[in-house]
Amino acid sequence: MGALPPFESQLASLTLAALERDGGRSLRDVEADFDLLRRAVVRTGKAATAEASKASSFFEAKELMEAGIKSVEDVFNEQREALDELIQTVGKLRRLPRPVAGEPVLVLVGMPNVGKSSLVTATSTGTPEISNYPFTTRQLKLGHVIGVQGRYQVMDTPGLLARTEDERNPMEGLTLAAVEHLPSAVVYVMDLSGTSGAQSAPLLQLRVREQVRERYPGRPWLDVRTKADLPLADEVLPEAVPHGTLDVSVIDGTNVALLKRRMAQLVGDRGGS
Ligand SMILES: Nc1nc2c(ncn2[C@@H]2O[C@H](COP(=O)(O)OP(=O)(O)OP(=O)(O)O)[C@@H](O)[C@H]2O)c(=O)[nH]1
Ligand SMILES: [Mg+2]
């Protein structure tokens, strides 16, 4: 998979690992079986050609050729399962939803339960085609939006947790791979009301924001505080809220229209990064 672009390569690895986990065979084994089939076909063909070249008459050569073709067919049919299995595995990879090459991707990054998916629903023009990836119950979703300045894609990601890079699970890795490798802009989604659960406590969300921001300093970035219909949690001092954060609520509609415009601007204004 070395020939694939980095994001697609990571997507393929995750999917293959998931197929194996679900009782399928590894791509390496499927490829090894197919290689055995290929070698057997070539070997049989060569042997038949060598036999036919010894023929002393046209008719004998023709008979040997027909027998040779039959033996190649027999070898192929004996092991054709290996080819079917390879075709099936390739088909699964082909059907994976992939971001459209070159089209900007707006990645919603944030901790679990902070309101990322609600924002996607509230800001999408029409119904985005949401495609689910098969490797997890926590899905990475990709929707297409027709914005004022053209098409762009919205990636609704499962939450990032507060932990070091080496502790991250594959889904978190894929979210970050999207930010790193795709022509992306980041909407960092925070719920500072303290109602997203202990795992997504406001101060942890601010810490994860710093971590991701430092890692991708060049990405176009928008900070959004969701659930703005609720007050800030006691532990969050107003000055701790990042400068320029947009307060949004999907419950009372606060700044939803403005957010749509800011999102479109963000993908239109990628500065080639
Ligand atoms: N009060 C209030 N609740 C909200 C708002 N937006 C989302 N919620 C609630 O917050 C909860 C989580 O919202 P989701 O949009 O599923 O959050 P998420 O970040 O996609 O969650 P995961 O995908 O599980 O990480 C839901 O119960 C929503 O109803 C808001 O603006 N105000
Ligand atoms: Mg969600």
From TrEMBL:
SUPFAM superfamilies xrefs:
P-loop containing nucleoside triphosphate hydrolases
- Signal sequence annotation: none
Q: Can you give the residue ranges of the G domain? A: 107-197
* GO MF term list: GTP binding
- The NOG1 N-terminal helical domain, residue ranges: 4-97
Query: What's this protein's name?
Result: Nucleolar gtp-binding protein 1-like protein
